[in-house]
Write a structure and sequence with these properties.
This protein is mainly beta. About 15% of the residues lie in helices and about 50% in strands. It is built from 2 helices and 7 strands, in the order βββββββαα. Strand 3 and strand 4 form a beta hairpin. Helix 1 runs antiparallel to helix 2.
Length: about 170
């Protein structure tokens, strides 16, 4: 039995110098022809420590047919370095005539913009108590998203800066 595995990986690394809203959009597709045992596709957004922030997965097709994953998500990202990684692959059994073939395609886009209203912590378009609770949850867990002033550390200054923005509201 002759088997071959093929994988294609796309990586886009980008840096945000101050907090921004990131819109992630795109498609990843893996397509297998005859004798393809499995095709897979996935997309991951990771922080500089390799922690997965968002993941989009295609359900593998055991018959090797085309699989794809589309993603369209907007989220607030604190300052830092990020990697958008997409991979697609096929597993081919070359003993089954006709011999297998596979392909992968990627289309990804990251649009960055300043947050419209910093006090709208959860990005739902309204400044309300849920923003306050969401910030507190991130703050007490010492997650980088609670680095409200983007100075690289989560501390009491972030809490006071968020309170100031929260009570100021949005224009």
């Amino acid at each position: 039995m002759i088997q071959a595995n093929g994988d294609s990986v796309f990586r886009l690394t980008f840096r945000i110098d101050s907090g921004a809203q990131a819109a992630l959009r795109g498609d990843v597709r893996a397509q297998g022809g005859p004798a393809v045992n499995l095709s897979s596709a996935r997309v991951r957004l990771m922080d500089q420590g390799g922690q997965v922030i968002a993941a989009f997965l295609a359900t593998p097709d055991p018959n090797g047919a085309e699989v794809s994953v589309s993603f369209d998500e907007t989220r607030d990202l604190p300052a830092g370095q990020y990697t958008l990684e997409a991979d697609a692959g096929t597993a081919i059994d070359a003993t089954v005539p006709p011999n297998g073939s596979g392909s992968a395609s990627f289309d990804a886009r990251v649009d960055l913009s300043r947050r419209q209203c910093p006090a709208d912590f959860n990005g739902d378009g309204v400044v309300d108590s849920q923003d306050f609770y969401d910030f507190l949850n991130e703050f007490f867990a010492y997650r980088s998203r609670a680095d409200f002033n983007n100075d690289g550390v989560v501390n009491s200054q972030d809490f006071f800066d968020f309170l100031t923005a929260f009570f100021a509201g949005c224009p």
